[in-house]
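User: I want to check something. If I give you two sequences, will you return the structure for each one separately, not as a complex?

Assistant: Yes, each is folded on its own. Here is the first sequence with its structure:
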Amino acid sequence: MIIPSIDISGGQAVQLVGGETLAIEAGDPLPFLERFSVVGEVAVIDIDAARGEGSNAGLIAEMCRRGRVRVGGGIRSTAAAIEWLDTGAEKVIIGTAASPELLSSLPSERVVVALDSRDGEVLSHGWRQSTGTALLSRLEELRDLCGGFLVTFVEREGRLQGTDLKRAGEVVEAAGVARVTIAGGVTTAGEVASLDEMGADAQVGMALYTGELRLAEAIGAMLRSDRSDGLWPTVIVDERGAALGLVYSGNESLARALDERRGVYQSRSRGMWVKGMTSGATQELLGVELDCDRDALRFTVRQHGPGFCHTGTRSCWGADHGIGRLERRLLEIAASDDPESNTRKLWHDPDLLASKIREEANELSAAHTTDQVIEEAADLLYFLLVKTSASGVSVGQVETELDRRERRLTRRPMESKEKST
């Protein structure tokens, strides 16, 4: 896969040549995160912290809340690594501080060891000093202690002259089962595809910022099709992962979908089409993923209007059900003008809603039989969804927060907040 990179210095997104010369100062990093995160994880590197010349921790913490981020730069202790993982980072990137002792104190699957090299030798101190350690030897030494490596070919970094695919292959072999991410000079979609084929990810910065490489080109280069028209099956799912339908994508439709962040597809007979252009059932594109065989796509969308299917149902398999359906139904009722609606009454009476939530929580707590628990839990979920909907909060946002909390390593003690009398 492609891992877009955002390097930050002085609160700005920057790109450096060879880790030294400022080539691009691109401004606020948050729009870049929004643009890049549609394809998955984004590497965010605190250049100031890496050099010991400051910190962009507050900004990067906000980025962790907004997207799937792997954080690097200045992480030199177990406590610092755990703090970032608790903040919501998918992974931490640890450089010269990556000793066996430090790595053994962290969950290996969430640690990426950064190895900066020039001509096959590991560098330190912000790429400024040679260590005398061979890159392949260091990989073999640490490969059982981490989930992956970020290997940067410093002599190619930021120069848009291509990466070293031969050396990348040697790196992948030396890393064993640890996943390798290659940085330094990756410029073309073909290079991204070649790295993907050998089992490595491509971390790309300069080529994306300059427009030399587009995300759609990189994604398309990794895909294959057994169809005569070259199209890729594309499964459409909503924010909660429920399948809405099956369509097809091509290079042009994928590029437009990523550029416009909406559902754009390729018809097998009619050419390119935009979902909702005539029906109003538009889609916001939230994410694009490749399947394991690289012959299909999954689009995660926020579906508007009656649904995805041309028949007017939520999905091409009929009406939906469960919590997602209830949430949408509550929004419809709240927007109506029915004076007899209890949902509308709750929506506009926060004191009554708070009372009902407390009441149902107590009844669920007191439930004993299976049927009682089901019934009381259903009651409570209804009132909770009224609360979230009235507050402009979606179930998807709540689920994202639960996922973020699952990644925390530090756990608070489970103690009652009730005051004894």
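And separately, the second sequence with its own structure:
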Amino acid sequence: MKDKTVAKTKVFLKSFGCQMNVRDAEVIAGLMKKAGYSLTDDEAKADVVIFVTCSVRQHAEDKVWSEIGRIAKQNRAGTVPIIGLVGCMAQNYQQQVFERSPAVDFCVGPADIAQIPDIVTKIFAHRKSAGRGGLLDMKIWETDGSVRPEEIYHTGFYEEKDHAYVVISEGCSNFCTYCIVPFVRGPVRHRHAEDILLEVKEAVAGGITRFTLLGQNVSSYHSPEPMKGKPVDFVDLLMAVSNISGLKEVGFITSHPRDTTVRLFEAMASCDTVKKYLHLPVQSGSDRILAAMNRGYTRAGYVHLAKEYRRIVKGGLLSTDIIVGFPGEADDDFQATHDLVRDIGFDTGYIFKYSPRPNTKACMLADDVAQGEKVRRHKVILDLQKSISKSRKRSVA
């Protein structure tokens, strides 16, 4: 494929789910631009459509399948764009992707996104010589322990002009019983602190002043190698980033209660450039359910953390995630969650109905909370959180 043709080829990217997928889409966009392709915000003009996907919840997956079907039905002068499925769904379903949706041209797991420009080029060459079809050998799967090449984070492409997401770690090794992330993104791999600092400095040089550090569990971060002869944990990294000249604000998501410490709160309070916001997923207020989820902390431990955060980080915002309808969640378990939400008074809460995820331990448990009851519990907690959020906003105003 000649360079002039590549430059005229328009690529459209759409991400689903968490901020990690937003950053992955940016990384892919940067790689495509570096390879000479053009980006477009207009899906109707795209020659290549890439979906960066999430498998954490069934609803997110259903939306992607629907989008693929819609794109595949479009007819543009007798052709449809190349369709790529990237990320967690690709790793989760692998060969089944092509069986369920033959319209998909390539399927790439999270660790192998660096290969996407070459894959797209090969597919165009194949189409030119043989037409559509015969592309099942193009699939690429992530393998355990795979590490993304560091250079993919240095293309300089970010969607926002004044804000950048910066990945500090990939994957997860917590194995919460309901969570598919360790199976689709692999075990946790931490980037080197010096590489992270270099990425932030490069972005600052490009005019970006606000940053969000990303990881499935940022609190567990440890640099694979020391920096200036000293080990670097998450608090060390956060302070090093916050001190970069030209940076105005740095935040982070997500923190796991098991690994979050008062030392982090003290660092947040002491540094003007660190955003006073903590996302600390509790998931349930019941010790029995927390143990079944393999969360590694108790209700009392979580409440203590929340109180310490509010005491130390004056005016700091606190948000959380809640899952209702986990297998075995009885009325008293749900009431414990309700009471915890009421008593802590989160500024924001993200409430989800449990849905079984393949390969997880919870998937082997009986999904014994009726769907109607999940809907009811979801509404009860959601309504409670909305009331609390409004009240806290009024008190701040």
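Because they were folded independently, the notes below concern the second chain alone. DSSP finds 14 helices and 13 strands in the chain. The longest helix spans residues 371-396.
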